[in-house]
Amino acid sequence: MAQGGNGGTPAVQAVGVQKAFGSLHVLKGVDMTVMPGTVTVILGPSGSGKSTFLRLINQLETLTGGRIDVDGELVGFRHVTRHGVDRLQELSEREIAAQRAKLGMVFQRFNLFPHKTALENVMEAPVHVAHQSKGDARSEAEYELDRVGLGDRLDYYPAQLSGGQQQRVAIARALAMHPEIMLFDEPTSALDPELVGEVLGVMRSLAEGGMTMIVVTHEIGFAREVADQIVFMDGGVVVEQGGPQILDNPQERRFKDFLDHVL
Known about the structure:
The chain is α/β, with parallel strands linked by helices. It contains 8 helices and 12 strands.
């Protein structure tokens, strides 16, 4: 379990978050607080809005209602005052990119460039987004790949790597940008069962190192071992939340039924 600090500014603060796609209301008022250095695991059935919530934090989708603050800064908008009236103004793409730089995101699918080696995949964003020199980016990429246990696979192409290894390259790629917060969207759901453990092992190591993490997963054992906070979502709302002990004593019937099903 991560060692989170008490007090201070939340790493992520969501208040009344709503998201609709046309007439489909995916999120219906989600409140959540994630403190720095802690691990929050979000559980819930398919279609409950978990992945959409992560995408809103990372500004891959736009809020319909409510607000999200990352490290005390309003995501996606700024307050402007005109004629004595306070309004919200959307940020520019450059400003959004600057906010997004605080976040690393790992998806279900690895999304690696098939024509680039593991090393080149990890170097890509530091060179072309952060404008690092190739020498610095290479050193950083080598360090991050070694950190995820792939120091001997630098020159392998994705097709030469297992699914678990590809996902570990994707984690290294996110870490190379020095994020303050890591978002994981069902990072093991596309893996064969025997490969899940190697990815969870890397995530467990990150948690032990104090990385702030929000993880959408169905891996209950991982949640029980690593999470500081468990959030159960269903139908676009938070149904129950608390420490990992709620896995053994769920209060809400929907949560109990979910646990009975996945276990």
